[in-house]
Amino acid sequence: MGKTKKGFPFGFYVCSLSFTFERLAYYAAKWGLTIFIAAEVVKGGLGLDKSVAASMSANLVALTYITPIIGGYIADRWVSPRLLVPLGEILMGAGYLCAWKANSLGMLWAMVILVAVGTGFFKGNVSGINGRLFPLADEDELDTVFSLQYSFVNIGSFCGTTFLPLLAKSAGYRMLFLACGIALFVDCAWWMFGMKFFGDAGKKPFLIDNRVEDINKAEKDTAPLTKLEKNRVIAILIVTAFSGIFWLIWYMVYNPVYFEFGPTSEAGLGWANWNIGSFTMPTAWFDSMNGLLCIGLCPVFAGIWAKLRQRPQGDMGMFKKTALGITILGLTPATMVLAAVLAGSGTKEPVGIWIIVLTAIFMTVGEVIFSPLGNSFINKYAPKKLLGTLLGIWPLVIFFAGKGNAVLYNWLSKFDFIKAYGGVAVVVIACGLVMLVFSGKVDRMVEGE
Length: 449
Fold this sequence. Notes:
This protein is mostly helical. It has 2 domains: 10-212, Growth Hormone, Chain: A (Up-down Bundle), CATH 1.20.1250.20; 228-449, Growth Hormone, Chain: A, CATH 1.20.1250. It contains 15 helices and 2 strands.
């Protein structure tokens, strides 16, 4: 079932392409939900306040981070993961159809709940099955497997935010949601066709799999943690706390891009010029830039880390990378402040499109450096008896970050943009620099030096 001389098993492409369809719909709908709520009724929207739009988008992000924990628990103990996946796809498809017919927030809440529950059944279980298609793989090969899977994820994100908004622009936001629903039903059909290529992977709940026997044994281990293990737990909790700061700002950035810097045709103030000739670029293409840059930069940074590992002193430490990612993310609100200054907060000519590209670059470089580190770090250093707990805390923190980004955005909206976002930039960069100063000490803690 593992990688053969001819390449990966077909089941790998079933799982990875399932992510492409699902992420295509999710990221298109995430953008569409925000703009649809705030757009004027005459332009096909609900005409509600942008604070409502930001809050609903935050609910979608937050809930889709927390439900995979529940879905994973069910798949671990009671239900075949390969059956939970199509159930999740059907629920997500039904959710997008609710948005297609929505004329109130109630129907959009139904979308958020159905998509969140469906994501819980889908997301972690597809990755779990994909990993079990490679029972003889070592850690390096599994890293390759999931790096390639992540490429399929970003292809879906890029296509969803690049092409479906053009459908929304020409046929209305509701048609975008309809297309998202259709994509999930196609995804379900693809999964049902592809299940025959999985062998035994995912037939039974994951905890019956031999791969987790060590974890089961560790859960029964009542021996106290050693000093080194305690230090590692502290280090993991520090990284997890900083991840909350990172994702809080990362998700919050989208709102001012959509509203303060978005073109006036999409309920924004138009501080940036989104025109390419006579064509007005949809704000969703900011999301597309992120997906496209991820596709291009992930292998670049993988090569950089591999090159650094060849040095006598080895690769850059985990905490130094984390600090670097957070510091670069802090340049994102700083760039937006620069744009606001140049545009006079809407009183002068809009800033050129270069400011949007620069914002996306800083945001994505920070993500590419920071995002892959968390789960890898936890799996490497967590005491086995606490592995599940610490892996569960990571998405829980991101849940609060996803939920809190709208609260932060709505609160910042009460103040002058330049001062408010300038303060955010200072705080985030300061967090990165503080972590950078102490990175060597914390790296030595986890290595037992």
